[in-house]
Specification:
181 residues, alpha+beta, Phosphatidylethanolamine-binding Protein, five-stranded antiparallel sheet, 14% helix, 30% strand, globular, disordered N terminus, PEBP-like_sf
């Protein structure tokens, strides 16, 4: 009984809220720890993939979630700051998945905005590490946000989107895949 009381007191002191299911991210197109399929690989810069944005589905968002954001990032890119492959924000809170190819087919949920990638355009830009590099890691993350909308245009670069997303995150879930050539 004392342990339960102490835990409840600690939760109230440190601002913890009622427990919620752990947020999870799944994908029919991405298998955690495995190599990315050619469908999600960039078509350009020496790569010849199909550049199709992956299907993503999530569950377990915390109470108070007002919108979602999805970001794809390569921390191994030889830039000194990684490489942003995709950012989608202002995804309505009622949404729990994005279909495969939604970026290219413009089938994202109503109101969702795609920021600029490090390829210099909005929309999904698949994996394309330099030839000969060890396989890079690609982190796909969905963020549950405490705001309805981020005050950003579709020209916002990944780092700026990341700043606003992290400042408003309630919870997140990720899948990490690899790709090398």
């Amino acid at each position: 009984m004392r342990l339960i009381t102490a835990a409840l007191m600690a939760a109230s002191v440190f601002g913890a809220t009622a427990a919620h299911a752990e947020m999870k991210l799944t994908s029919k197109d991405l298998a955690a720890g495995k190599a990315m399929a050619d469908a999600q690989v960039f078509n350009g810069f020496g790569c010849s993939g199909r550049n199709i944005s992956p299907e993503l589905a999530w569950s377990g968002a915390p109470e108070g979630t007002k919108s979602f954001a999805v970001m794809a990032y390569d921390p191994d890119a030889p830039t000194g700051s990684g490489w942003w492959h995709w950012s989608v924000f202002n995804i309505p809170a009622k949404t729990s998945e994005i279909a495969a190819g939604a970026s290219g087919d413009k089938k994202l949920p109503a109101g969702a905005v795609e920021g600029h990638t490090d390829f210099g355009t909005s929309g999904y830009g698949g994996a394309c590490p330099p030839a000969g590099d060890k396989p890079h890691r690609y982190q796909f993350t969905v963020y549950a946000l405490k705001v309805d909308k981020l005050p950003l245009p579709e020209t916002a670069p990944g780092a700026m989107v990341g700043f606003y997303v992290r400042a408003n995150t309630l919870d997140k879930a990720s899948i990490e895949v690899t790709y090398g050539r």
